[in-house]
Model the fold of this input.
Amino acid sequence: MLLQQKGIDGTVRCSCRCGVCGRPLKDPKSVGRGIGPVCAGKGTMTVEDNDTCHDFIPDSIEDGLILSRGENGTPCCNVPQVVVDHSPNGFEFGYGGSGPSDLALNCVELILKKLNFKGPRVKKFAGDCFRKADELHQDFKWTFISSVDESGGTVSWDAIKYWVMSRL
Done:
């Protein structure tokens, strides 16, 4: 989960936090997953634990897709990584590679869940997703993820919701 915090000097900084317990995330793999190692170890929300994972929808998604960089340059976002198909190193944005592809896949999967979509699922490298998410994610990546500035940005919920709904 991505949270904005004001420092003592008044500047706004992003903070990557666990989507389950809210603790700060420092490890790049944890940041990419959106969950820390303690919560992952409990089986609360991991790629391997799809029944729990696929039920998790962060409240912040209706604020839009929020992308930024942590202090060490690690990508931060408000989308949990529930499926891995392209990038074992986690999410990325601002270009068209494997990290942005996995971010796009997880975004479309999350939006479909939020819209109560029902449809066939397909197995991926780790986890599974709606077949429709698999069909749409590359176009979603080129439309939204690759064009975000490398430092981050926000894509409105209305824009991504409309984009997905118009393709169902």
Observations:
- The longest strand covers residues 2-6.
- Residues 2-165 form one domain.
- The helical segments are 28-33, 37-41, 50-53, 98-114, 131-145, 157-165.
